[in-house]
User: Fold this.
Amino acid sequence: YDKLMAAFDTRTNDDYPDESTLFYDAYRYIRFVDGERTNKKVTYAGDLPDFRVGNGFDVHPLADGNGVLRLGGVDIPYAKSLVGHSDADVVCHAICDAVLSAVGLPDIGHQFPPSDNKYKGADSMQLLRTCVGKAAELGYAVNNCTAVVICQAPKLAPYIDDMSKSLATVLGVDSTRVTLSATTTEHLGALGNGDGIACQSTVLMAKHA
Assistant:
């Protein structure tokens, strides 16, 4: 320590990228010790990842359906189905908007306008894949994702793991980085009456130098 401090006092310039270079310049030797991969070396500002947080929300009404409700890319047996221009997967839509907002892109309505019949009945997992791809073009990748589904019925607990795994494949992360939960509104409001399902999502995106 004393020798390092002395090297700072006697340095010939201020252009050393790190202390080891300074020490070597002063004493012509350095010693190496094993490090930890988790101890990231930060020399320049660009060595730090650029993190961006995005939030998304979506809601769709429920109507009599074909016995299948799609959430997070998983088909769930239920008497009602969500209504929308695409397959109305509110989980995918909320995550789409979270990804898009994090990287500064227009929301899902601008990316896949309901006025365009090309997206009528579209698979929302493919829409999410497109949004992740648009973020990747800007150099960003998903770090982790959380989402809470708000509905009175059906009970979603048996399907949460499958939804996390399904979404993880599209988001390009391990399923442990996709955290889903479900809650009710205790029979309050339209969602509590079973008129629809909503989802709110938060996504952390990272851009590495």
Remarks:
- The chain has a mean pLDDT of 93.
- The chain is about 30% helix and 25% strand.
